[in-house]
Specification:
The complex is a heterodimer of chains A (about 180) and B (about 450).
Chain A lengths: L23 H11 L11 H12 L4 H10 L4 H8 L13 E6 L2 H5 L2 H12 L12 E6 L11 E3 L2 E3 L4 H10 L2
Parallel strand pairs in A: 1-2
Antiparallel strand pairs in A: 1-3, 3-4
Chain B lengths: L1 E4 L18 H6 L4 H7 L3 H11 L11 H6 L10 E6 L8 H8 L1 H15 L3 E6 L4 H16 L15 E6 L9 H8 L23 E5 H13 L1 H5 L9 E8 L5 E6 L2 E2 L1 H8 L10 E5 L8 E2 L9 E2 L1 H6 L8 E6 L4 H15 L5 H21 L4 H12 L7 H15 L1 H8 L18
Parallel strand pairs in B: 1-7, 2-3, 2-5, 3-4, 6-12
Antiparallel strand pairs in B: 6-7, 8-11, 9-10, 9-12
Helix pairs in contact in B: 2-6, 2-9, 3-6, 5-6, 6-9, 13-14, 13-16, 14-15, 14-16, 15-16
């Protein structure tokens, strides 16, 4: 329920008349998701569509929400209601690379604290923060389903397993 | 990481080490879709009967007999029926489904098709946890291949059975592994569990009869159809049929996914020999959580020299449960107060907020654990934690609340020293009430 990036809505525009616009290709992609569900059950496509909005706009914002509401014949509140439940959606811009370190038991006992300290020191940020250049955002997340290769992190959707501080250096240094 | 079968021929893991095992070509070369062909020449009742005979139980964690679950579906209902594959693998310590989905996606498809045929379903959904995006891409390719080869779509293999399967993504919520929450999420809502009854078999997705099965449950189905329910059952024990995947993590030399016949003896041998023994040979075994974070934690005395049998009955007898088979091994460097705190934070984070006892209870548990970890534990805290657990357990719609309570209850009971050490000292580590026993212990 809680989100990986703190959900702070202070000074956020939650309601606006502005509706986001997307390219025809993206609209086609959205339509392809609708085909999976019965025509009267369009709401099922909500989560897949929100992922597309997040990918295209960097985060989920009020104009993006408005677009999805229109697209699926839902109210704006319906869309906010679902969106705010899931930890993979964020409602503020984040860094280009979203580092998500698994903090649950198997990773914890296999060296997660050392990895987290190392990354914090290297990037000069704490979990929940973004580097000033906007390159990295660091989050602590719950079990990523990769316990046999602990400790692990995800950057975006990519898994990085059996981490050591040296390996972390190589990975982060290779990202442009 | 190890992926291998011990004490049996690899069944679930049969294709794990074959190159390009995710492709249709390799799947067909290794006997794939033959069970579907066989199933299409059986009646629906015959298939359900074979699955019942196999004693297959849900591999997601609840362990409900699969054949019985299937038989609850009112096949004569005029409503459409659905088969849903639960690939929302999120139970801490569990990662077996990930490898099945990555390396044997067609086995999942074949299992779903056989289930769909037996239940009269024409549509299937595979609900992936959002983090498993790369697996959705693999599955999409597999579905495309299956469609092109007429294993999927209209008139499958020339029969009058038609079925379509689609992928669907979650977005980061452990609760969606609970079947009714999964269905809410699949309908585009917050992942709140629903009241049972009605059970999904009667009123599930879109109010229609629906069966939700775990990935490993579904990949077992083609094996059962191929060799027959009795033969599959006899791989394991009378009550716990077949084989089971165990996801081993923590302080062992060879963590990984292991396939064991049900009834495998014994747990000590499994840890000390099959998994290579303790990661650091000079550190002793302290604790094992054998079935994912939600089951009772076991101490070394319950394992060493006890000949614990690894199946549903054996683990209950030993004081825990099979659960999802997420087998977490901890050596003596782990403080069980801290490990329990870690899991409690997980349940607090993942509580969906629907039921008050679970939402508020897990929050208070974490607050108390935080205070204890800051060195401000009190002797009465053990009893306080247990009281809160008692107020959560059995008092919410779904088992998440129970799952938050069980690790704490078992940890306090089985590792009293690890709690006493924190509860009987102040910030400076001085013992302040050394002569008071922890009531709960």
């Amino acid at each position: 329920m809680a989100t990986t990036v703190p959900t702070d809505f202070t000074n956020q525009v939650l309601y606006t008349d502005e509706v986001a616009e997307f390219s025809p290709e993206v609209i086609e992609e959205m339509k392809s998701h609708l085909k999976k569900y019965p025509p009267e059950r369009k709401r099922s496509a909500l989560i897949p569509l929100l992922f597309i909005v997040q990918r295209e706009r960097g985060y989920i914002d009020a104009p993006g929400i408005n677009f999805v509401a229109k697209f699926l014949d839902l109210t704006v509140t319906d869309v906010w209601e679902t969106a705010t439940f899931y930890s993979m959606f964020h409602f503020r811009p984040i860094g280009k690379y979203h580092i998500q370190i698994c903090k649950t038991l198997s990773c914890k006992i296999m060296g997660e604290p050392e990895i987290t300290n190392h990354i914090c020191k290297k990037l000069g940020i704490k979990p929940g923060e973004t580097t000033p250049d906007g390159k990295f955002t660091l989050s602590m997340v719950e079990c990523l389903g990769s316990c046999g290769t602990a400790p692990v992190m995800q950057i975006g959707f990519d898994y990085y397993e059996n981490l050591t501080p040296e390996k972390v250096d190589q990975i982060l240094d290779s990202l442009e | 990481m190890e992926i291998r079968a011990i004490g049996c021929e690899p069944l679930q893991l049969k294709r794990m080490h074959i190159k390009d095992s995710h492709t249709l070509k390799v799947y067909l070369e290794t006997g794939g879709y033959q069970a579907l062909n066989k199933a299409l020449n059986m009646t629906q009742d015959q298939i359900i009967e074979e699955v019942k005979k196999s004693a297959l139980r849900g591999r997601g964690g609840a362990g409900f007999p699969t054949g019985i679950k299937w038989s609850f579906v009112p096949r004569s209902s005029p409503k459409p029926k659905y088969i849903v594959c639960n690939a929302d693998e999120s139970e801490p310590g569990t990662f077996k489904d990930r490898y099945l989905l990555e390396r044997d996606p067609h086995a999942v498809i074949e299992g779903m098709l056989i289930a769909a045929y037996a239940l009269g379903a024409q549509t299937g959904y595979i609900y992936f946890r959002g983090e498993y995006k790369y697996l959705i891409d693999i599955m999409e390719k597999a579905l495309e291949e299956a469609r092109a080869a007429k294993f999927l779509g209209k008139n499958i293999l020339g029969s009058d059975f038609s079925c379509e399967i689609y992928t669907h993504t979650g977005a980061g919520a452990y609760i969606c592994g609970e079947e009714t929450a999964l269905l809410s999420s699949l309908e585009g809502y917050r992942g709140h569990p629903r009241m049972k009854p009605p059970f999904p078999a009667v009123e599930g997705l879109y109010g229609c009869p629906t069966v939700v099965n775990n990935v490993e449950t579904l990949t077992a189905v083609p094996q059962i159809i191929e060799m027959g329910g009795d033969a599959w059952r006899s791989l394991g024990t009378e009550k716990s049929g077949g084989t089971k995947l165990w996801s081993v993590s923590g302080h062992v030399k060879r963590p990984g996914v292991y396939e064991l016949p049900m009834g495998y003896r014994d747990m000590e041998k499994f840890i000390m020999e099959d998994c290579g023994g303790m990661l650091r040979p000079d550190k002793k075994l302290k604790a094992v959580i054998p079935g994912g974070s939600s089951v009772y934690i076991m101490n070394a005395d319950q394992i060493i020299g006890k000949g614990v049998t690894m199946d549903y009955e054996g683990l209950v007898e030993a004081g825990s449960a099979v659960g999802s088979g997420g087998f977490i091994v901890m050596d003596e460097t782990v403080d069980i107060m801290e490990s329990t705190k870690n899991l409690t934070e997980f349940y607090k984070h993942e509580s969906c907020g629907w039921c008050t006892p679970c939402r508020e209870g897990t929050d208070w548990l974490v607050k108390i654990f935080n205070r204890i970890a800051e060195g401000r534990g009190r002797p009465e805290d053990a009893q306080l934690l247990l009281d809160i657990c008692d107020n959560i357990e059995g008092k919410s719609f779904c088992p998440l609340g129970d799952a938050a309570a069980w690790p704490i209850q078992s940890a306090i009971k089985r590792f009293p020293e690890d709690f006493k050490k924190w509860l009987f000292k102040n910030v400076n580590g001085d013992k302040i009430v050394a002569n008071v026993e922890v009531e709960a212990v």
